[in-house]
């Protein structure tokens, strides 16, 4: 029997609409939402549905609900939590221009460590996955999936689940932006060389070399991303 995807609940749809309204400054940071009755009418929903969505957004750091007072839109970049990351990644059209570069800088800090731990904990599993590079098609879509899944695998094998949670938080954005990044032949060439050198270092069991190789390619990826951005902005 065919498995159909369950439709989004009204509160989830409302939550997404409110997040988009915050990101596009319909409800700007530090402004106040309209009263519940008015806002529910604007959105075409019931007040219980609105309250459920508001509670979710408050929990994740988008809103500050104050009993007896208007609900404030938080400065989510300063007051939000990790849940914000996964949510804003679903709305790339509203992201600041340097957001992806900031994410790459975080990856530069984290990837050398979780890859080192993965090789230390489960070297053969990492090598088994890297062996798939030989059959990797020379197109952006293939590289996006291979590269993203390599990072996810290494976070999982690192033994620290927080690495995986952070990476999963922007996996959708990774696919979107990776499609642009890997359209550049130099990006694919750089990554293919990375997979080969990482394979050699992992095979030898040299963990310091593994860490240094990952750090080097993460630094290079920031430069290549800036190149990809320049190409996109010139079109």
Largest sheet: 2 strands, antiparallel
Given the helix and strand composition, which structural class is it? mainly alpha
Query: What's the total number of strands?
Result: 2
Placed side by side, the strands forming the largest sheet appear as: 1-2
Helical content stands at over 70%
Shape: elongated
C-alpha Rg (nearest Å): 21 Å
Strand content: under 5%
Q: Which runs of at least 5 residues are low in confidence (pLDDT < 50)?
A: 1-7
Helices and strands, in order, run as HHHEEHHHHHHHH
Compute the average pLDDT.
89
Distance between the termini: 46 Å
* Continuous helix count: 11
Describe the structure.
Helices cover 70% and strands 2% of the residues. It is mainly alpha-helical and 235 residues long. It has a two-stranded antiparallel sheet with strand order 1-2. A hairpin with a 7-residue loop joins strand 1 and strand 2. The protein is elongated. The model is unreliable at 1-7 (pLDDT under 50).
Descriptive terms for the model:
disordered N terminus; 2% strand; two-stranded antiparallel ribbon; elongated
């Amino acid at each position: 029997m065919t498995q159909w995807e369950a439709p989004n609940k009204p509160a989830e749809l409302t939550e997404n609409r409110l997040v988009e309204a915050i990101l596009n400054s319909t409800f700007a940071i530090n402004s106040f939402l309209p009263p519940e009755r008015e806002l529910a009418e604007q959105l075409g929903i019931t007040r219980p549905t609105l309250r459920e969505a508001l509670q979710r957004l408050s929990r994740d750091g988008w809103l500050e609900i104050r009993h007896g007072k208007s609900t404030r839109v938080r400065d989510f970049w300063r007051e939000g939590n990790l849940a914000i990351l996964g949510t804003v990644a679903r709305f790339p059209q509203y992201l600041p221009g340097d957001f992806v570069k900031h994410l790459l800088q975080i990856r530069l800090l984290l990837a050398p460590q979780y890859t080192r731990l993965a090789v230390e904990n489960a070297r053969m599993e990492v090598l088994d996955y890297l062996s798939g590079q030989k059959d990797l098609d020379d197109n952006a879509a293939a590289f996006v999936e291979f590269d993203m899944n390599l990072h996810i695998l290494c976070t999982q094998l690192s033994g620290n689940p927080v690495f995986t949670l952070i990476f999963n938080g922007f996996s959708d954005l990774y696919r979107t932006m990776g499609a642009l990044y890997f359209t550049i032949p130099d990006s694919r060439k750089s990554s293919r060389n990375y997979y080969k050198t990482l394979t050699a270092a992992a095979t030898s069991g040299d963990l310091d070399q593994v860490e240094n190789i990952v750090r080097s390619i993460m630094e290079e990826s920031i430069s290549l991303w800036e190149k990809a951005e320049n190409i996109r902005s010139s079109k």
